[in-house]
Amino acid sequence: MSTPAEDPRIVIDLFAEEASVLEAIGVMHRAFDEYTAKGQPSGALQETADTLRAEMADGLRLGVVRAGGRMVAVVKYTRAQDGTLYFGRLGVDPDARGTGLAGKLVRALRGQAEAEGLDGLSCAVRADEAGNIALYEYLGMDIVSRESRVSRTGAVLPVVVMKDRVSPASAR
């Protein structure tokens, strides 16, 4: 399902297929490379087309955003055991940041959660990423817990778990 955003040059595809994997990995690596400069490389940099294909074969879904035909944002998502649509690895290519693409992608995911009868969205964010946390709060999510998770790099990272304030299913 492709969804045109208000700008006809922007297309959100929440059901990207295997043909998009290689391009999606490139966007993901560019988007998450900034953590290397901060001294804590992201596990996203260890993901490959093969690991992403394997996750998709196990039911993970891949969403992408194209602007003018070029892939500029990616997200991985799946149904969570708590009844939400859990997303991760939401990344926007550095040269496309500041244009509202992350917000468009989160709103599209929220619409998908509602279409599936789920209780909104959930995600985990590095606890020291105040900008990302603020973005998700602005988009209607709140911190519901704090924990540590092991990255693909082996590093133990403090994260905050965030969920939609008012979930679509519970608001009915």
Question: Any chance you could write out the topology, listing elements then pairs?
Answer:
Blueprint: E1 2-4, E2 10-13, H1 21-32, H2 34-37, H3 49-57, E3 61-67, E4 70-79, E5 85-92, H4 101-115, E6 121-126, H5 130-138, E7 141-150, E8 156-164
Parallel strand pairs: 5-6
Antiparallel strand pairs: 1-2, 2-3, 3-4, 4-5, 6-8, 7-8
Give keywords.
disordered N terminus; disordered C terminus; 172 residues; alpha+beta; 5 helices; eight-stranded mixed beta sheet; globular
What can you tell me about this protein's structure?
The protein has 5 helices and 8 strands, in the order ββαααβββαβαββ. By secondary structure, the chain is an alpha+beta fold. The chain has an 8-stranded mixed sheet. Strand 3 and strand 4 form a beta hairpin.
